[in-house]
Amino acid sequence: MFTGIVEELGEIVAVEEHGDSPPTADGQMPTRSARFRLRGPVVTEGAKHGDSIAVNGVCLTVVETEAGEFTADVMAETLSRSSLGALVPGSRVNLERPMALGGRLGGHLVQGHVDGTGTIVERVPGDNWEIVKIALPAGLARYVVEKGSITVDGVSLTVVEAGDDYFTVSLIPTTLDLTTLGIKQAGEPVNLEVDVLAKYVERLLGQRGAKEPVA
Known about the structure:
Shape: globular
Number of domains: 2
Order of helices and strands: EEHEEEHEEEEEEHEH
CATH class of the largest domain: Mainly Beta
Strand order of the largest sheet: 1-2-5-4-3-6
Helix content: 10-25%
CATH topology of the largest domain: Elongation Factor Tu (Ef-tu), domain 3
Number of strands: 12
Number of helices: 4
Structural class: mainly beta
Strand content: 35-45%
């Protein structure tokens, strides 16, 4: 479990592609899988094989660490359903270690399970902040509400405006300086994870409705 408070702006060092992944969830054969090598001396301190690290909001498992770098295997399902498939050596990425039990929850509860990818539509700079408009994929808009929480590329943010097919967020200087959201431009994809509580509420209310007797 993560909090959406990015610890480090890391970098993709190498991408080694493979073609031996299992079938995807819909039964289709994958096009590729990959092993990523990433540089992140902060998040690799004390990390070991089997630990989790969020990369642009995607929870990945550490294979090995060495000299401030770590490797992680990325399956075809993850590459196709997130923006990780577009990463190349030199790409900057947001990195976060899981929250320690008893630690402070600085953002909100983030699972590292991406629900879909959005696209940056426009950026409007202000005096001390920047408003970013992001297009929502079909099916996610119902989970996004004004003043609610959403994770964008692993960053916990508060929704300013929630439209039918978009939402906006306001980025403070710290977020602009220390995360990829400060350098991504209009047209670029971002990973989105909606608040998991909204999905649980929807499922529970749907089940209750289905059990109600028909008049």
